[in-house]
Task: structure prediction
Amino acid sequence: MTILALTGGVGGAKLCLGLARVLAPEEVVFVVNTGDDFEHLGFHISPDVDTLTYTLADAANPVAGWGRQGETWHFMEALEELGGETWFRLGDKDLALHVRRRELLAAGQSLTAATAQIAQGLGVRHRILPMSNDPVRTLVHTADGPLAFQHYFVRDRCAPEVTGFDFHGAASASVNPAIPFDQVTGIVICPSNPFVSVDPVLAVPGMREGVRRSGAPVVAVSPIVGGAAIKGPTAKMMQELGVPATTVEVAKHYAQRADGGAPIVTGFVIDAVDADAEGEVQALGLSTTVAQTVMRSLDDRVDLARVVLDFLGASAAAPGLKA
Result:
């Protein structure tokens, strides 16, 4: 059994941790969004990759969900005294990771190889794969003009009104060749923002094709519960795009993104709060299961991981799908 989990940052990383606690390192591969990546202060910053790495290493800040626990900020304080940019906060421990990544990339290593070395150094045994080794950058279109994702998300705190998205570089990027599509028995789309965490992953040429070629069932977990996003600006973005912030609309987003072929998502996990929407989601052609998807504790993460794996197992046994 090999499970492929497509994920973004904090929200998706919670489920990834649950999967890592249930599955052995050889049984799951995490494919991470790099559309959030950018160059800053001379470093290649990879926020979603780092969030997952710290989470699996049990080193993540338990309050923020990103960055390292027990962090100090002497570097940022000194940089501010010198008039440097401090809107994107790099803690002293976190800075060490960025210095190491810069060294590895400068030595000619791929982002995948650099990620593997850093994860190994932090004691992570599960595989973390950037979606591509090529640069893909999410651009957020707003009523005030286009913004690089981190400028929108961190610097401007998601305040500008969103009108759309572009993924610069995606068309010429190559899917990460380390992704074992031919060995995959189930695919999970974690409860990450569908527009800026999952869509960039699926926009890389070869990703959708690889998912379809695997023949594996694909289960997405809704990031919207009771009309609100558990983490991040998903609900706000949906409202500004003229889309109701509901779990049904997220299911529609996945079910309708066919790019000339059948939708890749076959199943959808709905929170118990939204159980009455199950029929509407099923009407889209998706199988469903209802669970507690709000993950406040480690037990919640593990329990949801087990539900998702059971759902995948049931889906795989359906006619026409890989068992």
User: Anything to note?
Assistant: DSSP finds twelve helices and 14 strands in the chain.
